Please model this.
Amino acid sequence: MNETLFDRMGGIDAITDVVELLYRKVLRDDRVARFFDDADVEAQSQLHRNFLVAVLGGPDNYAGRTLGAAHSNLVDCGLGDYHFDVMNELFTDAMLDLDVSSETVSDVMTLMERLRGEVLGRTTVSSGPTRESS
Amino acid sequence: MTTIFFGGTAYECQPGESVLECLERNGQQLPSLCRSGTCRVCQQRCITDELPGAATFGLRETAIADGGFLPCVCEPVADIEVRQPAAPVVATVVEKSELAPATVRIRLTPESEYDYRAGQHLTVHHPAGASRPYSLASIPTDGYLELHVQVIADGEVSPWIANDVQVGEQLLVGSAQGESFYLPGDPEQPLLLVGVGTGLAPLYGILRDALNHKHRAPIVVVHAGETSEGLYYEHELHSIAARHRHVAYAPVVGAPTTAWRDHVPDPSEWRVFLSGAPRAVQATRKAVFAAGATMRNLYVDPFTPTARAAASAS
Model:
């Protein structure tokens, strides 16, 4: 069996650290911080972590809404491709800062790219996390 | 085979079975949601000699120190007693005074043993049925429970405490709850305490608790009030800061969101306690986190009855 991206990123502890760093970068970045004005950062980052763990091939503990439903309010407030790109840039930085290999980062980004349409409400897909198909 | 004690009854736990599964097999109802150690809805407290690592994954150090564990992912390795919350106790009002406009201090002496940690909160029960959480400003060695009550004009409990409750009266108070308290394990880690209004109450307890435990690293206390009149305990805090050179006290009129920065340029290694009005507390949490403080070092106690009720239930 192939090693999952979840394993390659270092499991739940490492992904937790990456997501925490991602959120710190997000709150410091004027390009995207406003979308998190009303968010409970701790609860939001845990939900995000659980979603990532599931789509990266780890245990599926994601109990949140679909990607489309979770972002529809933000799309109404102007969330678009530009912000999706910024989030991927910050996510990439967070992974590299915490020594995830560039090959793994690249594969994670390929996976994120497949979620773009659903996040931005252009395609409707599954009701749960989209599993990594490897 | 291990034994689970729950509600005064012993249950034999089968190999491969979690505490949650065993109790449910025996007809006991516990709240649960994800059943895989993530959502923490099933979190309980226990007494045991040993817990498997998975049973405390993601819990705060303070929760673990208080016996917190997740029954859904706990396959017990030793006998384990799941602790029920203690029943409310009767406490006598021994002192009542005004701290600031619309802010009252009461001190209560419990009529039976009462365990708590400085910084936790309890619920005060109104005789008509309503109850509200209030933070403890005292420390266990004080011998009394001290509460700072902000009077909400149309509230169900605070106007009653402010206007009707008399010294000598007996009140019903719930057991102490909450994960925002001081753990003495790391006296070299600096502490930032930011309180808004009566959010000072738990921090005042945490400050005195830390000093009693000989906390050596810097402690910065930021107290924010809407007006200077709301900055009660100014004299007490100045006095503590004068006696302890590593304690700094910073009263602030207005929002505390960034006021702590003058004292703490880089909070990444600090343990941070935030308490008080939810909007100001959440804004400050974001600012402190963005500046580098880590989630595990951020203890946040927003004063919203609904949030507290949800937190107590989980």
The interface with chain A takes residues 33-34, 36-39, 57-58, 282, 285-286, 289-290, 292, 294-295, 298, 300 of chain B (CB under 8 Å).
